[in-house]
Specification:
Layout lengths: L1 H25 L2 E4 L6 E3 L1 H4 L3 H5 L1 H19 L5 H5 L2 H11 L8 H10 L2 H5 L8 H6 L6 H24 L3 H6 L1 H31 L18 H7 L1
Antiparallel strand pairs: 1-2
Helix pairs in contact: 1-4, 4-6, 6-10, 7-10, 10-12
């Protein structure tokens, strides 16, 4: 029982640190969101990896708290649309932290939701890009494919919410396809690099500095090594 309590305590401590770092990342813009006055931020890279370090539940909680704190500090109106926008990064963190492929069912679900919308029917090619992460889910052991699935999870859910909230024109949606492919490719690499770097640093702290409380957070499969690049990269 004491081991379980210690593990929960360590995860809660790391959760607090992770939330602070994630909130800082939330303030650093990366690119503009088309059709909105808002930006993608470094939070897109950081939020999903919480699901792996902390587990899907605590990873989702961290994403929820950071998004909620930002709304509170910036004094945004807490309406239905604002609440719905919590979902993309929460689900991305859960996806990244889960070992199985169960969440991949969300991709075809989002495709259906997109295609039954009148505008979505005229931009039917756009949601087909979510077949990419659906295929990637079969190689989820590979960190880059897991990162690709996580960032597309946020994208698929976010796009459906955006479609039903704002519409846009079919031409805009279709024109976004090459942008999305480049953007999500970069985000996947960012998630891959972020997790690899933090996980490797934590491993070194455990091995060299003897910081044993960090040991439960480290995944030995994903530390910088020849074996990682051979089997898990």
């Amino acid at each position: 029982m004491s081991i379980i309590k210690d593990m929960i305590k360590h995860k809660c401590s790391f959760l607090i640190i992770f939330i602070i770092l994630s909130f800082i990342a939330f303030q650093v813009p990366v690119s503009k969101i088309v059709g909105s006055g808002q930006d993608f931020t470094l939070f897109e890279f950081i939020a999903p990896i919480g699901g792996m370090f902390l587990g899907p539940l605590f990873g989702a909680i961290s994403a929820f708290i950071v998004r909620g704190a930002n709304i509170f500090i910036t004094r945004q109106t807490l309406d239905f649309l604002t609440v719905m926008r919590f979902l993309p990064m929460i689900l991305a963190a859960i996806y990244f932290g889960l070992k199985g492929r169960k969440m991949a069912i969300i991709f075809p679900f989002c495709i259906v939701l997109f295609l039954i919308h009148p505008i979505g029917q005229k931009a039917w090619l756009y949601p087909l890009i979510w077949l990419i992460p659906l295929a990637a889910s079969f190689g989820k052991r590979r960190l880059i494919l897991n990162g690709l699935g996580a960032t597309f999870m946020a994208h698929a859910v976010g796009s459906v919410i955006f479609l039903y909230a704002f519409g846009l024109t079919p031409q805009i949606w279709l024109g976004l396809i090459p942008v999305v492919l480049i953007e999500r490719g970069c985000f996947a690499i960012g998630i891959w690099a972020s997790y690899l770097a933090v996980n490797t640093v934590l491993d070194k702290l455990v091995e060299i500095k003897g910081v044993k409380i960090l040991k439960p957070l480290v995944n030995k499969n994903y530390i910088f090594s020849s074996e990682f690049f051979k089997s898990y990269a």
